User: Fold this.
Amino acid sequence: MIRTRFAPSPTGELHIGGARTALFNFLLARGAGAEGQFVLRVDDTDKERSRPEYERQLMEDLRWLGLDWDEGPDMGLPVPYRQSERGAFYEEVLRSLQERGLVYPCFCSEERLETLRKDQLSRGEPPRYDGLCRRLAPDAATRRIDGGEIPCWRFALPDREIVFHDTVRGNLSFPPESMGDFVAARSDGQPTYLFASVVDDRLMEITHIVRGDEHVPNTARQQAIFDALGWAAPVYAHIPMILSESRQKLSKRTGSTPIRRYREEGYLPEALSAYLSTLSWTPPGPEKSSPLSLEEIAPLFSLSRISTSSPVHDETHLKHRQREAMRKKGSRAILKWLTELDPRFGVFDNTALERLIDDLVEENYTVPLLREVLSFLVERPRGQDLNVRAWLPDLKPTLPSIELWTEEELNRALRSFMKERGLKGKEFFHPLRLLLTGQESGAALTLVMCALGRGEVMNRL
Assistant:
């Protein structure tokens, strides 16, 4: 059995990095077939920044990507899947740690901790708790609590290295002095992310955790909790951070676009999923045809093929995937979406319009882009100030005489007309395109005229 989880904090929109993490966990579970399960858990311990609307958006974006979950907060299951609703589980485990002396009360003020942090940084040391309250005698701590002081509870790190194996990075070890005793429960009784996630992963029987390598220090602390409680830790796989094209950590400033924005721009979910799967992972075998659908990718996915080097978010590669996905869908499906977006396109000849879409989709790789470039079909261009009086009166009676309104016949008739009047291609076709479409460039003019139809071409001329 493989049970993975995606545990986002509902404090903002789903971005590229989080979507890739969710995708890898999903693929690992789905690749195991009936023996795999993918769990969605909402880690909303940050009460101030967590928002229900962000949670809804996260779920909408995941579903749009095709990352459906087997268990989650929206399924009406008897066990809660939001950390804000799982307080009883954390309290029980915290009591166990307190009874065994594995956590201790800390009365240090925010001011003292901030001063300690600044002093350590000024000496070039990593900021960490100095263990002041750990040295308090138990009776002294009890008197302070009885006197009305409300402490937080810190986990007492063992006096040994914390060791764990990472599937991507190998064996890792951390001396306790590099971390310092960390807070497991705040003074208001709320568990921290570090503590709550360990409890949840244990009770939800999560077997594999795939997440960004920025969590490696967190994993060391969480491994210490697993060890202290005698619980078997999940298999860890820390995937490398995605970088911007300037080799910086992705952020709003450096190109981390929300998944919702791609949805609004008309990207297909399979294009985005296929693209995300290539960020740190490559499919086995020759790359003659890269897998596109989740169903194709899942059986191929394995943690052993995850690279340790940081991938670069490349919009050009994403656009290539989008073009692949659009071509795979075909012009008939694209025309259906185009008509749903703007019903006015439904009055044109489907065959001619599909041919036009085929010609334009490479450069205009989303339905909104196609709608914009094809707007001339449904919105007649304004009058063009062009010097075409010399030949336009002669062209208008020529077109009705064309027996078959096809690309071949139109091409033959237009070129014959142009040759008879000694016109060059640019001085004939360019003004004609402007008259019919109002655009400087576009698809082959015969395709445009077929899509417009004989009657509309004549009306525009």
